[in-house]
Amino acid sequence: MNENYQSHVRPVTDIRSSSHSDKSLTGLLRQLTSDITSLFTKELALAKVEVSHSIHEAKAGAISTIIGGSVLYAGVVFLLLGGVLALGQVVELWLASLIVGGVVVLIGAIMLASGKKKLRASSFTPTHTMDAMEKDKQAMRRAI
Q1: Side-chain half-sphere of 37: how many Cα atoms within 13 Å?
Q2: Is 120 helix (H, G, I), strand (E, B) or coil?
Q3: Distance between CA atoms of residues 137 and 104, nearest Å
Q4: C-alpha angle 36-37-42 in degrees, rounded to nearest 5
């Protein structure tokens, strides 16, 4: 216990005195204030960790989206090249370009969808902090 609280504690024989209950109440209020401050500080630290994790996930999602968009662009280029070659001559070369372009577009679309999924708004919600704060709130209600 802290020294301030111990200096206010009286011997067991004085427990029934009203001044002791006032001092005990004061000590309890100080302890409660200290505990609430400590709890709030820890909750803020948890929120900071959660938000930084969300930012890291957002960076990964942005990178996936950019790479997916680039691959998709390359696929479109191949499809356009296939269309040009198809118009120029009707042989197997254009078919090969269309197949390659189609596969690249498919891969790019999958990567783009994956990146968008990582960027959804719910991934920025500090759920662990909110859960911990709700538990703290319920514990405080039970204590009161």
Answers
A1: 6
A2: coil
A3: 52
A4: 95
